[in-house]
Amino acid sequence: MFNEANTTKLSATMARQEPFGNDRPINSKAIEEAFSLLLQYKRDKGTNYEEFLTKIQERTERHSQSDRDSYHFVFGVLYDMIHTVLSLYQAIAYEVLYPKNAQWFSKLDNILSDQGETWVVSLNHDLFLECLAIDFGIPITYGATNQRAFPVSNLAMHDCVAFSSIDRSTYNAGSPGFMRGQRGINLVKLHGSLTEHQYRDSEEILNPTLQGKSSSELIRDFHRIQGMGYFYQGRLVPSGRERAITGPNGELDLMSKAILTGGRKYSGVAKTKMGEEKLAIFDGILRQVDQLTIIGYGFGDRHVNFRIQNEMARRDELVVHVVDPQLSDLPDCLNPFDYDSRVTRARCGAAHWLDYCNTKRWNLDQMNCLKENAALRDTIRQQVEVAVRYGKPAWK
């Protein structure tokens, strides 16, 4: 999306804005520097957008107030772009890949506990686990205890979108919204989700209700959430990370997108802080389980690695199984425990493992079919690029 010409124009346009009010002017030089960092990152062939966002985040704590505000402004614009791109991938991949691949995940319940609930701590932003659980009749919950509804817009007050809701102050592993002693998935999206939002100054966590009869109903809700907004004098009020929506009484309201990205998703200390309730739940889960299965995680988050390593050192009975087709060597956090079968590995994908963990045989038809996904992923990428370039498709 970015080159010398369009970043120069974008920098000039952003420098004329007053995102923090006229008493806190932003700095055009800092904005230009932020985008020069982006262009340099591209020239260096960087491929990890979180690594680049970390560079911008580091600059929000330096220099003058004007510089810090400017870097915050750039971070917010890039965050919104990334959220849009990921949302487009979700929408298009569901149409292109999900109908073809869902059958190969039909053995999802093979990894569920026979003794009661199964905790899943996901680092993904997408909704595919939720889709699979709904389609295969597996109960699943975010731990919510209440519901809220908002109009799609003040031009369509009768058309409301329902959310599940939980107060942050009561969000913990003991929340009555989580399952106990029954088959199903308690899902914790550790880094947020494309549909997760924060409301009432981040005091309330909102998610889809997961009450549909099929994944298509969940994706319909996803589209409707993306399409929420507020119109003033016939024009849609622009939104960024803070989304302008229509409140229950038709007034302008705000909710915040909740995906966590960059290098500072959580603090680097062992003790969890205010706003780190999901991390506290993860801590609590690790203290209770005897087996942790890690599927498709690249061990790139220190706040996750530290906690796994700490619990492995504290309890000899905890074993870890790593499922990843790309894994060649164990990460540093698991190396010290690679003895007495405490750490085992399977070099395969999630779908392959769902079959193999029960039958101890590889499904060749499945493996051959999933190999065809590479070409479909190229198709999805092309469709996303077209959608970004031309502003399509509109959310359904």
Multimerization status: single chain
Give the biggest beta sheet: 6 strands, antiparallel
Tell me the strand percentage band: 15-25%
State the secondary-structure class: alpha/beta
Q: Indicate the overall shape.
A: globular
- Element pattern in H and E: HHHHHEHEEEEEEHEEEEHEHEEHHH
Widest sheet: strand ordering? 3-4-7-6-11-10
What is the radius of gyration computed over CA atoms, rounded to a whole number of angstroms?
22 Å
In which range does the helix fraction lie? 25-40%
Count of individual domains = 3
Q: Termini, distance in Å?
A: 24 Å
Q: Give the number of helices.
A: 12
Outline of this structure?
This protein has 396 residues and is an alpha/beta fold. The protein is built from twelve helices and 14 strands.
Layout of secondary structure:
Blueprint: H1 4-15, H2 28-43, H3 49-59, H4 65-96, H5 98-101, E1 117-122, H6 128-135, E2 140-141, E3 146-151, E4 160-167, E5 184-189, E6 197-199, E7 204-207, H7 215-226, E8 231-232, E9 235-236, E10 242-246, E11 252-257, H8 277-288, E12 291-295, H9 302-314, E13 319-323, E14 343-346, H10 350-359, H11 364-371, H12 373-390
Parallel strand pairs: 1-5, 2-5, 12-13, 13-14
Antiparallel strand pairs: 3-4, 4-7, 6-7, 6-11, 8-9, 10-11
